[in-house]
Design goal:
Shape: globular
Number of strands: 13
Helix content: 40-55%
Strand content: 5-15%
Largest sheet: 6 strands, antiparallel
Radius of gyration: 22 Å
Number of domains: 2
Number of helices: 20
Length: 460
């Protein structure tokens, strides 16, 4: 369709789902028990790590929200949708945006978690983002009026960016990114000189967070060889998980696993990977919602023992969106994550790939692979001042719009949203009422822990 037809289609979608229909939130009469959904997820995870997940989620309503993507996906399935689909992040909350190194060694700001990515209604990502803003604003003790203003600003950031992107050439949309210079300009314009100074200190620190830094922090010398140091239960080397003979056999399989992973990389990256040799591996606990899934870190060495490359090999299970939008077209869940990430991110890790392998328990599982640390930095949402939180929400909204425009119809979405604030107000109402629901769900988690229904481990 031409631009005029796509614009008309976007406006026509308002008949199917008026913008006002996105406002508010009422749980369905048959809404699943949120704790039962968490228990269902736990069934496929490492049992001894699940209490750590519950412990991390119990800390606050915002921490709970971070781990509750499956709960919110089930809730969103019953909400209004325009029928316009994009590649979804699937877990687009505030803490899943951040900075990282581009292949050109620039710091870029973008979405950085795609474990749940699948095609679906664009509204779902935006609703998860704006709800996370409302939850975070409550933890700051902000008044309802201030919270709703920040939420409206987040939606406005998305809406105005999408309207601008709708007029861009497709190649310009594809190449668009928020780099360090643009981010610094926005920080200073929105939050002033002091915020810019904090930003510059943070980016300088982020640029030291790479494989060399991970090598210094995570390894030790054993028998003269660099190996990953144990820090149980968060980091457990393979040698501590299996008897010595079995561990040696497992390491022998690494050549086959690396060959399978290598095949998913572009040809030039294969040449680079071939310059490294496998040295050690360990299981590592990561994140909040991801705790309990299998995640490994791999130490590779290049020209000598002081030339490290750390890779993270993270289990990819079926997306929490799949029961509501349909299964992925990719049979390998690791590939699902990688392909979604490549679609949505302006720049992706040069070592991004996937594998399928049989684990220590004899079960076949899918994984995606990327560098462990590569200038990765996340904003401390819970420490932000109200003005900074508002600016950050607008930035994340605009960033999400750019990700959706890469793989969806920016013209139709922009036409649906329009130039007024109808969608801003409706989605801010949704965010506020869904934050109420999130608080009830967090309270249910605490009750389940107190009643002994869930085992919890805190402080890790």
């Amino acid at each position: 369709m031409d631009v005029a037809a796509r614009t008309a289609a976007g406006k026509d979608a308002r008949r199917q789902a008026p913008r006002s229909s996105h406002g508010g939130w009422e749980p369905a009469p048959d809404r699943p028990d949120p704790i039962a959904l968490l228990e269902r997820q736990a069934a496929s995870r490492v049992p001894e790590l699940v209490p750590i997940r519950y412990g991390r989620m119990s800390v606050s309503p915002f921490a709970f929200f971070r781990g509750a993507a499956a709960i919110m996906a089930a809730d969103l399935a019953g909400t209004s949708a325009s029928g316009i689909r994009v590649q979804l992040c699937g877990d687009a909350h505030l803490s899943n945006f951040g900075g990282f190194a581009s292949p050109e060694r620039d710091l870029v700001f973008d979405l950085n978690d795609f474990d749940e990515t699948l095609p679906g209604p664009w509204e779902w990502d935006l609703k998860r983002l704006v709800a996370s803003v409302a939850v975070a604003a409550r933890e700051h003790g902000l008044a309802r009026r201030v919270r709703k203003g920040i939420a409206r600003g987040t939606v406005r950031g998305y809406r105005e960016a999408m309207r601008a992107l709708a007029d861009w050439r497709m190649l310009d949309v594809w190449y668009a990114r928020i780099d360090e210079q643009e981010l610094a300009r926005q920080v200073q314009a929105l939050s002033g000189t002091d915020a810019l100074a904090r930003f510059e200190r943070g980016t300088a620190k982020a640029k030291r967070k790479d494989s060399t830094r991970a090598f210094a922090k995570l390894t030790q010398r054993l028998n003269g060889q660099p190996q990953i140091a144990a820090d149980p239960p968060l980091i457990v080397p393979l040698r501590d998980l299996l008897p010595a003979e079995q561990a040696a056999d497992f390491e022998d399989r690494m050549a086959r696993l690396m060959a399978a992973y290598r095949a998913t990389l572009p040809a030039d990256r294969r040449v680079l990977l071939d310059r490294f040799r496998f040295a050690d591996m360990a299981h590592k606990v990561v994140g909040v919602g991801s705790v309990g899934t299998r995640a490994w870190i791999l130490l590779l060495l290049g020209r000598d023992d002081e030339d490290p490359l750390f890779l993270q090999c993270k289990e990819a299970q079926a997306s929490v969106l799949a029961p509501h939008v349909g299964a992925s077209r990719f049979s390998n869940q690791g590939r699902r994550v990688v392909e979604g990430q490549r679609l949505m991110q302006a720049a992706s890790d040069i070592f991004l790939g996937w594998i399928r392998t049989t684990g220590l328990d004899g079960r076949e599982r899918d994984f995606y692979v990327r560098q462990l640390w590569d200038w990765k930095v996340s904003a401390d949402v819970e420490a932000m001042e109200p003005e900074t939180l508002g600016a950050y929400g607008r930035l994340c909204g605009a960033t999400l719009a750019r990700a959706h425009a890469r793989c969806g119809d920016a013209v139709a979405i922009a036409a649906y949203l329009g130039s007024g604030d109808a969608a801003d107000r409706a989605l801010a109402d949704f965010a506020e009422t869904y934050a109420d629901q999130n608080e009830r769900d967090h309270a249910a988690l605490l009750t389940a822990i107190e009643a002994g229904r869930l085992e919890v481990q805190t402080g890790v």
